[in-house]
Structure formats: C-alpha cells, structure tokens
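Example 3.2
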Amino acid sequence: MKKVFLTLVLAIAGIGAAIAQDTIKLNEAVITATRASKKTPVAQTTVSKEQIKQNNIVGDVPYIMELSPSVVSTSESGTGTGNTSFRIRGTDASRTNVTVDGIPVNDAESQAVFWANMPDFASSVNSIQIQRGVGTSTNGGAAFGATINMQTVRPSAKPYAEVSSAVGMYNTFRNSVSVGTGRIGNGFTFDARYSNVQSDGYIERSSANHQSLYGAAAWQGRKTFIKFSILYGEQHTGLSWNGVPGYAIDSSKYAYYQAGVWDYKPGNNRRYNPAGEYLDDKGKIRYYDNQTDNYEQTHYHLQFSQKLANSWTGHATLHLTRGLGYYEEYKLDRKLVEYGMPNVIIGLDTIKKSDLVRQKWMDNYFYGLTFSANYTSDKLQWIIGGAASRHDGDHYGKVLWAKYSLGGYDFNKPWYTNNGTKDDYNIYTKATWQVNKLISLYGDLQYRHISYVLDGDDDDLVNLNQSHYFNFFNPKAGAFFNIHDKHTAYASFAIGNREPTRSDFKDASKGSTAEAPKSERMYDIELGYQFTGSNANIGINLYYMHYKNQLVLNGKLSSVGYALMDNVDKSYRAGIELMGGIQIIKPLRFEANVTLSRNRIKDFVSYTDIMNDGWKVIGQETKNLGETNISFSPEVTGSAMLRYTPMKNLSFLMTGKYVGEQYYDNTSNNARKLDAYFVSNFRMDYSFKLYGINFGLQGLINNLFDKEYITSAWGYRAVFQSGGAEYVENGFFPQAGRNVMAKLTISF
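Structure, written as tokens:
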C-alpha cells in the first residue's frame, strides 16, 4: 500500500507538471476553501504574516497564538521551546484540529499535535486562522475546542533571501535561512528554508536541539495551480515531562518519601528535574546523559487546483507523513520479568530486579487524499468534498542495558511490538447563501467513518488485539447578519463527535472488568456581535458547549491497575469572549480580550487508591462529589497589548497575559489548584534599509516583572488502609523568570 501510494504521488506530479493552459490565475484557492470567511458564523481570529514574523523570535506556534482569545500556552522546558502545547477554552490539543494547507497534522492515535516535531514551522507560515468551537467539515476530524488552520508561504513573484538569528538566555539560539526564486520560466517558483533551534531550557536537562527544512516547488498557470512541498523536522529534546516535584517547589505543602520515612526537603529549586536520576556505586547522585526524546518527521504535500467551468473550481491534495523516533530513559529497580528477561542467579541469590536503560519506538505512516469541488457566484458559495486517510503505526521497545542480566539475552530484540491501523473517511457539503443584503445562511453536513485496529503486545506484555468502528454525522447551521456597514452579528449551532484515543482503548482493554470507552459528543451554540469602526473595534461572543460522555481522568482503574479515562455523562462549558481595540492617538493603539467562563462536570465520581502498609494498592474508595470544575479550565483568561509607533520603522509593544486559578484534576479540591498569574512582556521592533539591504532588529524581555508562575501540573493521591496522612505525588511546570532575547533579520 505504501509503495502504491508513493507511485501514485509521482504519477500525478508528472501529469500535473505537463499541464500548460493559458487560463486565469489560481493562487492556492484550495487553502481559501478550507477557511472560514468573514461571513461564516463562527468565532475566529486570524494571525497575519506580519504578526507571525514579529512574534516569531524563538517560541513555537502555541506562543505565537497565546495573545488570542481563550488561548493558554505552556512549555515543559519553561522557555517556549522543546515540548509546548496550548489549550483553547480549556480544551486540550487532542480535541483541537490543526491543519497545514488543509491537511491534518494531529497524530491519528493520540489526536495531539507535537510541535517539537515541527521546529520553527512558523517561519514558513503565511497566516494562522483560529476558529473557536466545533470545527467545520473541511477540516476533517473532530474539533471541540477550536480549529487551527495554518497556511504556508505563498509563492512570491519576486526573488528574495532572508537570514535571521536570535539569541537569548539559557543558551537559546534560533538561526534560519530562507530563499525564493520568484516567478521564473513559465510560471514556476521555488522556496526553501532551513532552521536550527537550540536551548538548554529553564528546567534542568530540558534541552532542545531541533532542526527543520521546508521546500516548495509550484507551477501557476492561468487555470491551473500545482504545488509540491516538503516539511522535515528533527528534534532531540531532554525529557522533562514529569515536571518538577512539589516538594522541590514548596516543602511546606508537599512531602518527600524515601527509604521508608517522610522527609520535608527545602523547597528552593524550581528548576529541578528528577528524570534520569540514579545513584552510582559510591552512592553519589548521577543523571543519565541521554534521557531524551528523539524523532524525525517528514510531511509531503502535493496540491492541485484547477479552474473547471464557469463558477466551478476543483481541488485535490495528496499527502504523506513519515515519522520515526524513540525516547530513551534510565529506569530504576525494574522487574526483569516485565521485559521478558529471566531472573539472574548470582551464587545463592536470585536477582529479580535491575536498573536498566530502555527505548520506546514509534514507526508511523500517515497518508491520504483530500478533495473538493467549489462553486462560487454572487449569492452562493457551495463546496462538495471529502477525505480519505490511513495511519499505520508500529510501536516497539528495546532494552539497551541492564545492571543485572543473563548473558544470553538478546538486547537487539524488542521486548514488545504492536501495531495500530486507523482508517478515516469523510464526505461533506457546505454552503453559504446570501439571502439579501442583510442576511446570509450557512449550512454544513459531514459524514465521517473511522475504523481502528490494534494488534500485538503492549509494553507490559499484555495482548492488545481489538478493533473499533465509528460512524459520525456532524451537522452545523448558522446565520450571519450584516446589520450595518460597521455592525455585524451571527448565530450558529453545531454537533461534533470524537472517537477515543489509542491510550483510552488500550488501557481500558486490560483487565476483565474494563469497559471500552464511548465516543464523545458536543452540542455547541455560538452567538456573536462585531463592531468595526475607523479607530475602534468591539467583538462579543457567547458560547454554550454541552458535552455528552466527555472522557476525563477520575482516578478509576482497570481490574489490573491501569488508570482509565472514564466517560462522564454530562458536562459543559459556557462563557463570553470580549475583544476590542482602539487607536488612542495616531501612534498609540490598545487591544485587549477577556474570556469569562463556567466549566463544570455535572455529577463527578472520584476514585482514590487504598494502599496497605506495604504500599500495595488493595482497592479504591469512591466519592460522589456532585458538580465540579473541569480541570485546566480557568474561569478568567485575558490579554492586553499596548503598541506605540513613533515612526514607521520603530515600535514598542507591551503585552500582558492573565490566566485565572485552575484545577489540575476534576475534584475541585483546593489543594490541587494552580494560582492565577499575570505575565508581562516587552518588545522593541526597529527596521532600516542600507545599501538596498533590509535590516530588522528586535529585542524582547519575557516576564518583565520576574513573576514566579506555573502553567500546568499533574497529581496522584492515595489513602492508607490504616489511616493517617495521604500519599501524594505531583509534578509542576514552572516557567522561566525574567529573560532577554534579541533577533537580527537581514533580507533582500
């Protein structure tokens, strides 16, 4: 199948390149078709190319978007490099659909986006559109929190070259080179970019060493547009996903347990990373020097757009994503039998446990086709289309070294192997009809089929063989009202469905009493109003998002002890998003947004492990907590920007980001709540031209007032059968204090 697909890509590329009609220009209309227009009744924000360029100093895409309404960004390293992520309206990235030129980049199994695998991708992005709420059908998979559509750089008519270099604290560097030929020959253009990002990270041993390459070749006729692009990313990132233990941050609240005693260590190291920590033969603390995540990912896109007849345009994109990588870690005192290794007999002693070094690998192919036919007239925009894709992913693990092992053990042989195959098909139709000057109506219907098959053994040697099938119907309807040249409004209703992830399926399948997780459903109501004046703008959006069978962590275990994502019957998110901007005086502009929300599980049941004095889990206690807060869903978020532009080529920007209190589990227990924070950044932009060469200088002070704050966390608790204090484990993700960055860009 993989070879057939690659052959098909090459064949279509050859056919497309031979087309040479003298017809009208099509400048990536396929991208326009997948985006919301100004009259689409959805809450949306577009980050322009200029805004991306100004914000793209070092941080990944989540930090370029962080000042947008309802967006909260976080970084495991604390500096915006390495492993980064975001939440929109409290919804995590696995429920947010992300596309590049209309092609999904969410991992098919986890449904998340790993930005570390796309380092400095922002340097090749022309614009980012964020559609909040249930996503439209053209974006394929389920989107509950938002849809993020990224468009790569458009072919340039003129040749160009650009070199940029950024440097900052924590040994942070970003170097990038971009070139383009402009229009040459009979309509051809070629663009390329290479980037390298390095950082030690704020958290100890959370270093990043990333590089990426983007290349695109396009041909543009009068009725035909063809573009072939490659995006390659290679990342090596220090493991810091366990976070900083609570006792290292605040020993008055969190205890440390070692060697059979409780110990309250001084909480004075917000940068402490325990990953890879072990004791050498002399009892000295050491850290494994290759505790890293390593992954290579390559995206191939072949886009074809053709003007057909009258008002019709056809689009198709073939795509292939190849991913290969592993993470390596030092593990303490592991049972040999868990790795298929025999016990070791030394003299009269039988050794059943050993320190060891292991790798867990992923070997993935994701490929498919998207297509559409678009009709455009004065009053009607109509799209018919669909997509078909397959994800074929191998998972396996290797033990590289063991402190104690039998001499005949084959370290090259995986101790487990399994495969996941996911097929995803959808067809859709959507239309916008301009009824009159005041009203336009919007309708969107999608049918989606998913099949997911798992086979083989997991890392605990438990068989995973299972299959799951889903059929979803996702409708959306709305109306847009052009009340006045300056006043518009909209209303919409949508239903979205989402399948569980690979982890949800495999963990639930382990144990005789486990039940397969159900798919999630969301009913989304949106109401919006927009005023746009010459010097001021105001936007208001109201939303109510009702969940059915939302998957959450509640402490529940399978019969063999695996933590489960469990369906809760009813939950909801309701809120109001306020946005506005005003030109105070000609050189001074102020913009701000705030989201006020209520996010609740209506009837939450928590499960807590019960341990005996030997630290073995012997059961669980159950408590019905009634209505509780949904985790990682602050009730207040907001951003503010004050820009001063004394001259055309000089500007100063002060920004502020506020995130209210948020719980890191679903129990509404105040002991598991992160404090609110407000963080300010200051940026200076200056550009000038010398001898025909453009120079750009940027200076950035992150966390201007040196605020100590934490953006994310995890927690585990258990009670003892004999009573007494609870056992608590947790990990927090503190962010860097005040730090400085500088960037120089040279272009011509």
